[in-house]
Design a protein that fits this description.
single chain, alpha+beta, Alpha-Beta Plaits, 33% strand, globular
């Protein structure tokens, strides 16, 4: 499998209810091809570098997924014919992505997010004693002076 990243710019005038079917269709395409959706990251409404379809703003979405060339072709075909999609672009991130390893990483991240945060007082840090930099005497000099004064 290969790992891809697809950016989709959707018409910013659409409501959340009108926008969500686009996301659901892409998720369905990924499931039909038995591929893995790693992340669907909604960046939200942003200013475009240049006007697209007489609009200066767009709703940005980033898809990170593992799949095949067939899946990429299908996502791009859907994006091309859907009037809600203003622009799209797909980038190959990794030619040899390990889907099982990515699933494990996703599971670990979900477990880490679900664990409650510890209070700072509960955390014990193992920090070695560091001599004060501003002190002109080294630690060795201090031990010599203490034994001489006794």
């Amino acid at each position: 499998m290969r790992r891809y990243e697809t950016f989709i710019i959707i018409d910013p005038d659409l409501s959340d209810e009108e926008r969500s079917p686009v996301f659901e269709k892409v998720k369905d395409l990924i499931q039909q091809e038995e591929c893995l959706l790693i992340m669907l990251d909604e960046w939200g409404d942003r200013r475009l570098a240049y006007e697209i379809k007489k609009k200066s703003r767009g709703y940005y979405v980033r898809l990170d997924y593992c799949g095949t060339g067939k899946l990429v072709e299908e996502i791009e075909r859907f994006s091309r014919i859907d009037d809600r999609v203003m622009k799209y672009m797909t980038v190959l991130l990794d030619k040899h992505a390990d889907m099982e390893l990515l699933k494990e990483e996703i599971a670990k991240a979900e477990i880490k997010e679900s664990e409650p945060d510890q209070n700072k007082s509960d955390i014990e840090l193992d920090v070695p004693d560091i001599p004060d930099i501003n002190d002109s005497e080294t630690a060795e000099d201090k031990t010599i002076k203490t034994t001489e004064s006794e």
